[in-house]
Amino acid sequence: MVGRTPAHIVAIKPLVDGVVSDFEVTEQMLKYFINKVHHEGFTLFPRPRVIIGIPYGVTEVERRAVEEAAINAGAREVYLIEEPVAAAIGARLPIQEAAGSMIVDIGGGTTEVAVISLGGIVASRSLRIAGDEMNEDIKDYARENLNLMLGDRTAEEIKIEIGSAIPLKDKLQAPLRGRDLVTGLPKEIIIDDEQVRKAMSKSVMQIVSAIKTTIEETPPELVADIMTKGIVLCGGGALLRGFDRLIASAAENKVYIADDPLTCVVRGTGVVLEDLDNLKGVLLPTEFEK
Question: Which fold has domain 15-83+267-282?
Fold first, then answer.
C-alpha cells in the first residue's frame, strides 16, 4: 500500500526507527489490534494487559510516549521490555542463568546487540541501522549509479530476492523496475547480487562493527560463555544470505540463526506475559504498572 495510495489516502508509519513517530496513529493502531483480538469474545470494553518491546537505550520521553499510547488505546496495565531481552527469551536462551548469552536482533528500524546474564543486559549496542536503512541504501545506489528512482517496496523485494552479505557461489539476478531519472519514463534494469551487496555494504559493516564493539566491552568470563554457546541472530535481517558467516568470520565466533527469526521478539513478549510472576525481573519499571 505504501507508495500506491491516491491523493485522499495517506499511508503513515506510526513507528520509525523503533520508536513512536506519530502518537495518535500509534494509539489508533494499538486500539485496532486490541479490538481485533477481543472481537470473537463477549467483552464489551476490552482492558487487556499489554507488554511492549522497546529498543535498548530509548529516552524517557520515547518510553513515556509508548506507555501513554497503550493506556489511551485501552490497556489495563502496560509493561515494557527491552527488545534484545525479549528476543533472547523468544530464541529460548537461558538468560536467567549466571552465564553469558549474546543476541543480535536485526529488525526493520533498529539493530539490537546485547550480552545478557542473570536476566539483565551486561553490554549492549542499539543502532538505528537495520532493514529499512538497507532498503534506503539500495534506493540511493539505483539513483546514483543507474539513474533509476525506486520505491520502498521495490527496494525491499530486491533485498529479499538477491541480497547477500558475502559473495555467493551462484550469481543471482533480478529485474529492477522504476522511473528513469533522465527521461522520466518507466525503465527496467537487470541487477545482480554483487551490486546489491555493494549498495548495502556500509550498513552491513556498521552492524558487524557494533557486534565486535559489544564483545570488546563484555567481561572476560562472559566472553568465554559466548565462545562456547555462540552468537544468536534473529529478526528479518538475520535472513540476509551469508550474514551469519560474515559475522562468524569478523567476530571469530560461532553464529546461529534462531528458529523462526522473524517472530523471536513477539514470542519472547508472549512468554513473559504468560509467566509474569517469574519473569517480572526482566521488565522495565513503568508509570502505569499496578
Answer: Nucleotidyltransferase; domain 5 (3.30.420)
